[in-house]
Amino acid sequence: MADISAPVKLAYESLRYYLETGKKLQVPENLPTELTQQAGTFVSLKKSGQLRGCIGTFQPTQSNIAAEIIEMAVSAGTQDPRFRSVRLEELADIEFSVDILSSPEQIQSLDELDPQKYGVIVKRGYRSGLLLPALEGVDTVEEQVGIAMEKAGIAPAEEVELYRFYVTRYH
């Protein structure tokens, strides 16, 4: 694991530690600079190229990105309602990625989106949905916004507020 990024290494170690002990890993000391800031963070797990778990927040909920990664890695592995919990014996077969999000900015038009460059957040009242950028099979702005609206339970004809954000993706 020497050639992987610090965020991905922390995500892997966090989930492994939790699966072994039932406890959350403490935030390590002497963090790399990119993990000391605050930002929304997603951890995605894939097994054999297929999604195995993905949990995150678009606004920070922890004191720093390292703490966000620890929380999201455990949640992606054990709390994603679409999947059964990851088992320790399958951990070696799982690929991790960590997305660190910029602050969302409100936009007025679909013309301000690009599904390869920006993630999108749609909001209507208390309902909101988010879709990360550069996802396989999501090639148009309309597909990206439609999936985010579906995730939020927002009907296609309903008006929504739109937000976009950048992602720094670590593998």
UniProtKB/TrEMBL annotation:
Residues 2-171 form the AMMECR1 domain. SUPFAM superfamilies: AMMECR1-like. InterPro entries: AMMECR1 (IPR023473), AMMECR1_dom_sf (IPR036071), AMMECR1_domain (IPR002733), AMMECR1_N (IPR027485), AmmeMemoSam_A (IPR027623). Transmembrane segments: none annotated. This is AMMECR1 domain-containing protein. It comes from bioreactor metagenome. NCBIfam families: AmmeMemoSam_A, TIGR00296 family protein. Gene3D superfamilies: Hypothetical protein ph0010, domain 1, Hypothetical protein ph0010, domain 2. PROSITE patterns: AMMECR1. It holds the Pfam family AMMECR1.
